[in-house]
Structures are given as structure tokens and as C-alpha cells.
Amino acid sequence: NPAVDFVEIIGPASSDAQLRVFNSLGQLQYFENTITSPFIHSIENLTPGLYGIQWVNGAALISNKLVVLR
Fold first, then answer.
1. Cα–Cα distance measured from residue 58 to residue 63, given in angstroms and rounded to the nearest whole number
2. Residue 33 φ then ψ, to 5°
3. What is the CA radius of gyration of the chain?
4. Could you give the C-alpha distances from 1 to 9, 16, 41, 53, 70, in angstroms and in order?
5. How many C-beta atoms surround the C-beta of residue 15 within 10 A?
6. Comparison of pLDDT for 15 and 57, the residue scoring more
7. Separation CA 59–CA 3 (nearest Å)
8. Which of 9, 61, 6 shows the shortest CA–CA distance to 35?
9. Cα–Cα distance between 4 and 17 in angstroms, integer?
10. What are the two backbone dihedrals, phi and then psi, of residue 13, each rounded to the nearest 5 degrees?
11. Phi (first) and psi of residue 50, to 5 degrees
12. How is the chain classified by DSSP, letter by letter?
């Protein structure tokens, strides 16, 4: 972090999960259902700024921040 082209997200091992990315206003910008760790994602569609990332696996929720630069 910060990221320019791609971001690698590492969650709990061997788990199917959901990935959610929110902008600084709390608006959902990206959603992926049933992903496994590690997950590599292109961020070319995200504008520069601060984002919140949520990795959701059942009742578990892991949150982090992502800074996108260009």
C-alpha cells in the first residue's frame, strides 16, 4: 500500500469469502463473491484516493484501507 496497478489481498487461508471495496464516501465500488486467498485484482477502474476493503467469510469480517495512486 499504496497501489498503482494491482493489489494482492491475503485473507484467511483456504476460505471462500466475499471481497468488498468502498470509496471514502462509503459507496460500494467493487464486489466479488466466492474468492480465495491470495486474491490479485486490477485497480485500473478505481480513481485515485482512499478505499476501505472488507474481506467477509461467514461471520468473520476483516477490514483494511487501500490507497490508490496514479
1. 14
2. -100, 145
3. 11
4. 11, 24, 13, 12, 13
5. 13
6. 57
7. 28
8. 9
9. 24
10. -65, 150
11. -100, 135
12. --BSSEEEE--STT--EEEEEE-TTS-EEEEEEEE-SSEEEE-TTSPSEEEEEEEEETTEEEEEEEEE--
Looking at this protein, which amino acid is placed at residue 33?
N
| 32-59 pLDDT tens trace | 987 888 888 899 999 999 999 998 888 8
Cell match 471481497: residue? 19
- Which residues have C-beta within 8 Å of that of residue 25, sequence separation ≥ 6? none
Averaged pLDDT, 24-33: 94
- Torsion angle of C-alpha atoms 24, 27, 29, 33, degrees rounded to 10: 120
CB 42 within 8 A of CB 64: no
